[in-house]
């Protein structure tokens, strides 16, 4: 049995979006996004074009045990999923001993909303929450593929920089991926730190 989705009570607000807790009422929309090959091409490193409901319940149930999982709503309609998760990659944990490292993953499932700055808003909100409330030391975007310059650009706009390039085995979708990193000290030193996200618990 997969672990049930673990929810939380955090709500985040960006200029255009409301990030609310992911719940068991969201399986239909998560399934639709996870059965859209255009979305999965970018959101998933594997060559997969659709997941089943059972598979996604396992994935999100597992991730949510150590993550804050959100659905982002635009005008009260869900358009994206995103989470801030405790770091789960040994290559990063071992390179940052004694540090609280987290990762952000996100996907705008409603693809008509790509390239409108909404991903950048979501990343900025999760970063602000991660550093201000969760007291993380570093936040990462992990395994961002070379065929996804839009994702790299969105994280870069928030201040993430490439920390490592990872060559991928021949025959896989990406020739290389990268881990991008932002330190709490860099975030605190940014010039516009007075414009932070509203947090309502
Ligand atoms: C990746 C994703 C979250 C980004 O969110 P978004 O709202 O589309 O992105 P934004 O509009 O905030 O920023 C995208 C930036 O990439 C730039 N960009 C877009 N296509 C690009 C390309 N081919 N090359 C370089 N830059 C590109 C845009 O110009 C924009 O930068 P700008 O504002 O300076 O002009 C979203 O596109 C998405 O969910 N994609 C599908 C799933 C996915 O890729 N998830 C991430 C897996 S790592």
Overall mean confidence score, pLDDT: 95
Structural class: alpha+beta
- Total DSSP helices: 7
* SSE order: EEHHHEEHEHEHEEHE
What does it look like?
With 201 residues, the chain is an alpha+beta fold. It has a single domain, classed as Gcn5-related N-acetyltransferase (GNAT) (Aminopeptidase, 3-Layer(aba) Sandwich), CATH 3.40.630.30. 31% of the residues lie in helices and 30% in strands. α5 crosses α6. The model has no long low-confidence stretch (mean pLDDT 95). The site of coenzyme A (COA) has 21 residues, from α2, β5, α5 and α6. The site of coenzyme A has 21 residues, from α2, β5, α5 and α6.
How is the topology of this model organized?
Blueprint: E1 11-13, E2 17-21, H1 27-33, H2 37-43, H3 53-64, E3 67-74, E4 77-86, H4 90-95, E5 101-108, H5 118-132, E6 138-145, H6 149-158, E7 161-167, E8 176-183, H7 184-188, E9 198-200
Parallel strand pairs: 5-6
Antiparallel strand pairs: 1-2, 1-9, 2-3, 3-4, 4-5, 6-8, 7-8
Helix pairs in contact: 5-6
Can you give keywords for this protein?
9-stranded mixed sheet, binds coenzyme A, 201 residues, 7 helices, globular, alpha+beta, Aminopeptidase
Summary of the model, kept short:
With 201 residues, this protein is α+β, with helices and mostly antiparallel strands.
